[in-house]
Design goal:
36% strand, 5 helices, Nucleoside Triphosphate Pyrophosphohydrolase, 182 residues
């Protein structure tokens, strides 16, 4: 049983519950997303496994996960990066983008993901094929130009987990696009 901190709107822990209860009751908890950004300005997306309960076969952040019990955001980002891609990074490799409060309900499963998440980006200079695929999470990675993500067609939008193409994330992508020109 995975235990997570229940948090208030500032991210301060106010209780503890198991992951299933947190999602069943929509309790606020902490999460992270890490985006890998190629030197040519492409974001790397993880294609979720067809065996996932929520949003199977959809494109999602390169790395996403819960912040563990008594764990910090940055530590969780580095841990999830290693677990889901095999990439070993240092805190200085992560560029903090923003903190978002997402409250997303998956009607297919009844699961609510009410999370206060921190978003990071990291430059990734190696070929996509060097990323290790965690078969329990995903079945591959795809790279999309940031400028394309900002102007997706309806058909393209249907390929993504809904929350990561919502208005809040479009602002994240605009911030990441600024990094492409640094």
């Amino acid at each position: 049983m995975e235990l997570l901190d229940i948090v208030d709107e500032t991210g301060t822990p106010i209780g503890v519950a198991d992951r299933e209860r947190i999602h069943r009751e929509g309790l606020l908890h902490r999460a992270i997303h890490v985006w890998l950004l190629t030197p040519t300005g492409e974001l790397i997306f993880q294609r979720r496994s067809s065996h996932k309960n929520t949003w199977p076969d959809k494109l999602d952040a390169t790395v996403g996960g819960h912040v563990g019990l008594h764990e910090g955001y940055e530590a969780a980002a580095l841990r999830e990066l290693r677990e889901e891609t095999g990439v070993i990074a240092q805190p200085t490799d992560l560029h903090f983008i923003t903190r978002l409060h997402n409250n997303v309900h998956d009607p297919a499963t009844g699961v609510s993901h009410n999370a206060l998440g921190q978003i990071y980006v990291m430059r990734y200079d190696k070929p996509l094929a060097t990323l290790r695929i965690d078969k329990s999470e995903a079945f591959g990675f795809e790279a999309w130009p940031v400028r394309t993500i900002l102007h997706l067609s309806s058909a393209q939008r249907s390929k993504f987990v809904p929350v990561i193409i919502g208005d809040a994330y479009l602002a994240v992508y605009r911030d990441i696009k600024k990094l492409v020109h640094e």
